[in-house]
Design brief:
It comes from Goodfellowiella coeruleoviolacea. Helix content is 53%, strand content 14%. The chain is of the alpha/beta class. It has 2 domains: 129 residues, Response regulator (Rossmann fold), CATH 3.40.50; 83 residues, Winged helix-like DNA-binding domain superfamily/Winged helix DNA-binding domain (Arc Repressor Mutant, subunit A, Orthogonal Bundle), CATH 1.10.10. Helix 2 packs parallel to helix 3, helix 4 runs antiparallel to helix 10 and helix 7 packs across helix 9.
Length: 219
């Protein structure tokens, strides 16, 4: 797996590179600004980019803008975005774009090495990885009187883990239930959110978007 890192904090940048190389992953370039990041993407054609949200010169959204441009140049590029704190609008936009090969993690998650590596591999494999803290903050902000109120507490737990990008097996492990139970909860979630089996959209992504979009309207 070829990886480019764009992070202006030198300690985190080099720490990430050391961690990934220790896992036998190929870090082909490390950069500290959007221009060098895009040049590295053009040169090395990586499979995954790890990008800080806030980068020079203004430390606002340069990382996001650069990640979008990198995906325009290389549509199959997987992008894992790192942020120092929850930025809800970006997390919502991330999934609204479809979520494939995209992830959004808080930087503190890097210290939980196995969780970070699991998220990286999930994104590289075509999935989505949303930080649990982002999901939690969005869930508690949902508005009343929506279809989400039909969900049981356990169904909301399942939906939250779906938002993180976990598959049925991983959800079952996290909740200490069987995969069959998870499958039943997901069927119930789809039914309560009026997502028919004939819907052309990915029902998992659509279900997650329902509460993320609702949370954003309330923000």
């Amino acid at each position: 797996m070829r990886i480019v890192i764009a992070e202006d904090d030198p300690l985190l940048r080099e720490g990430l590179a050391l961690l990934l190389r220790a896992e036998s992953l190929d870090v082909v370039a490390t950069t500290d600004n959007p221009g060098d990041f895009l040049a590295s993407v053009d040169e090395h054609r990586p499979e995954v980019a790890i990008v800080d949200v806030r980068m020079p010169p203004t430390h606002t959204d340069e990382g996001i803008v650069a990640a979008v441009e990198a995906r325009r140049r290389q549509p199959d590029l997987a992008v894992l975005v790192l942020s120092a704190y929850v930025e809800q609008a970006f997390a919502t936009d991330l999934l609204a774009g479809g979520g494939a090969r995209l992830g959004y993690l808080l930087k503190e998650r890097v210290g939980r090495v196995q969780e970070f590596l699991d998220a990286l591999h999930r994104v590289a494999g075509g999935g989505t990885a949303i930080d649990p803290e982002v999901v939690a903050q969005l869930l508690v902000r949902t508005r009343p009187d929506t279809r989400l109120d039909r969900l049981s507490p356990r169904e909301r737990d399942v939906l939250a883990l779906m938002a993180e990008g976990l598959g049925n097996g991983a959800i079952a492990e996290r909740l200490v239930v069987t995969e069959g139970a998870v499958h039943k909860h997901i069927r119930s979630i789809f039914a309560k959110l009026d997502l028919a089996p004939t819907d052309r959209a990915d029902r998992r992504v659509t279900a997650v978007l329902r509460y993320l979009e609702d949370a954003r309207r309330r923000a």
